[in-house]
Amino acid sequence: MNSTAFHSADILIPKDCDMHKWSVIACDQYTSEPEYWDEVSTTVGSAPSTLNLILPELYLEQEGVAERIDNIHTAMDKCLADGIFTEYKDAMVYVERIQSNGILRQGIVGAIDLEKYDFSKGSTSEVRATEATVIERIPPRIKVRQGAPLELPHIMILIDDPDNTVIEPLAKNVSDDSKLYDFELMQNGGSIKGWLVDKNAQETIDKALCALADPDTFCKKYGLNDTPVLLYAMGDGNHSLATAKEFYEQLKKANPGKDLSNHPARYALAEIVNLHSDALKFEAIHRLVYDVDCDKLISELTDALELSGTKVSDQYVICSCKGTEKKLYINKKSSNLSVGSLQNFLDSYIKENGGKIDYIHGADTVKSLADKHNGIAFILPDMDKSQLFPTVIKDGALPRKTFSMGHAEDKRFYIEARRITE
After folding, report:
1. How far apart are CA 226 and CA 166, in angstroms?
2. What is the pTM of this model?
3. How many CA atoms lie less than 13 Å away from 107 in the CB half-sphere?
4. Are 341 and 302 in contact (CB under 8 A)?
5. CATH T-level fold of 282-405
6. Name one Pfam family in it (predicted).
7. How many other β-carbons are positioned within 10 Å of the β-carbon of residue 385?
8. Higher pLDDT, 384 or 35
9. What is the pLDDT of residues 141-192, one digit of tens each?
């Protein structure tokens, strides 16, 4: 067992809780929509909830964040002291999520070995980032993890399993005896069920993952020679996994000579999902830029990327500003993807001129927010998910926030937890 980076974990699941109120959406969603989180707070009320154990990124740079983090740690300690969890030792959880669109998404919750993960560009580790990791985004998140006795994952990691050998067979072996939860998610999140995976099934999962990781099979699949195996590619929660990795590396540096090979912080709870699931639709993440001189930005962008309304390139961006919407083709590329060419310009422009940028799911949403903030909406083309593994293998991580797997309400909800202190 445990031949690859993914394996069983000691998983905590609440008992005797209203699971509808317990489970809330990933913290990196609705970062420009405080009303969403206000509605979640109203729904939860005083009930036990993961809302009290996570820091919505909406508040990450606001005043009072240190107090919020202290409150999170206090709430975690209280959950443990009150005994609200049942702990399942050496466990995996098979998950079936019915998304808001009615499509089934299957996954397995377990632990990722951070020793087998490297988020740096050009990494050849078994677990890799699929987009550029912004180092500056890690320290504020480490403050949440420091002093926290628990972690709750919204991390989703992809495997490239076209023959459905790892996750999908579990559907035939579930029973009411092993069901852990079954409930409706809040805020149009659909519904979710989870079952405990028995030891025989865990061994079957491990064998199937090892088969995918066979170097000869891997190289043949992608038409490569002697290339390090990429078995696990980040889908969602890239910066959360990077934070767990950096926290673990800092722990090692602070304890030279100490054997931390079995320390809980070496691992991070995550859900693996098959890239080929019908539920996974890769959608572009659009850009909202505001607190800028819109006319100046668009003028400089047009010059820098040689934008035109005539198709002479496969790269383009739709610009929506002040009630006007234009599809503009990029003639001077700085990346292999439209999002990369745009992002490279925006990073440079905002560094020199100031302004703010947010990453928004949904074209209608980003246009509405641009109107609200007197800003600019940049609407980007979708990426074909079949490009993901080959691109990461050959070119390294994609530009940050290149794609999203589905709509915001279909992102992972917090349910399971795990101890990260000895």
Report:
1. 24
2. 0.85
3. 28
4. no
5. 3.30.1760
6. DUF1015
7. 19
8. 35
9. 999 999 999 999 899 999 999 999 999 999 998 999 999 999 999 999 999 9
